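I am still getting used to backbone structure tokens and would like to learn alongside you. To get us started, please write out a protein record for me. Once you have written the record down, we can walk along the chain together.
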Amino acid sequence: MAVLYIGAESLIHEMRQLWNAYNRKKQFYPTVIYLTNNQTCLAILLFQCAVLLMFVAKMMTRIFFGRLQQAEVDNLVSQSWYAFFDMCLVFAFFQDELGTEFLFLFTMLLFVKAFHWLLEERVDYSSMLCFTLLALIALLCCIDVYFIRTAYMKPASRGLSVHLALGVEYYILVFGLFSTTVRYILHTIDSLREHPWDKKTMYLLYVDIIMGIVRLALYIEFTLVMWSLHPFPLFIARPIYLSVRALKKAIRVISCHRVFSLLFNSVTCI
């Protein structure tokens, strides 16, 4: 109810600003120029875009996930705060490119990441229908590929910019979709078997290791490219550290799992 009230209030203010601007300029193009140059009008338009994005997020969440559990909401909020902190570091590094387009692109990145996080969590608990999951994966893949194409076409014409950082993030999201798909296939195979599948845990660990290697390679490549022309991108230090830690953890777990399996087999043979 509060969201509807905020949306209606912002829509009223936006229509009022549009009407006032059109009464002043009397033509379409001068009205658009006035709206984009006036700070108050621009702030209202941006707020209205944020409200519309919120409505779209709620609608897509209801369609693909239904009602979110409290644990999912808490996890989503926690990850969003960490992502926002990383974005603030990116803002500091690319402060010369701050603008409306910059804010829009990073808002969309956070929006898309949220659905990736929810999808990964639901797949691990196998609580989504096959058609719904495949439809969401296809939709997210199309969005990721579109933003990758957009991110890497602009640096080709303007030189290195913040679009490269966005492109790396969307590349990681695409590989994350492949990882999520493989995990869902493994969970599905396990659910169709009459007896528990002992090797499923091993395969899931292999998927985590491959994903960790890909993520780390992308971050390192991006760091080297940016460092060749700019100061060291400090905002990439935390993602690299987290990738290395996750990769080490997965390798350690799979090593322990193999050792325990060998010990168990030797004891069984005795």
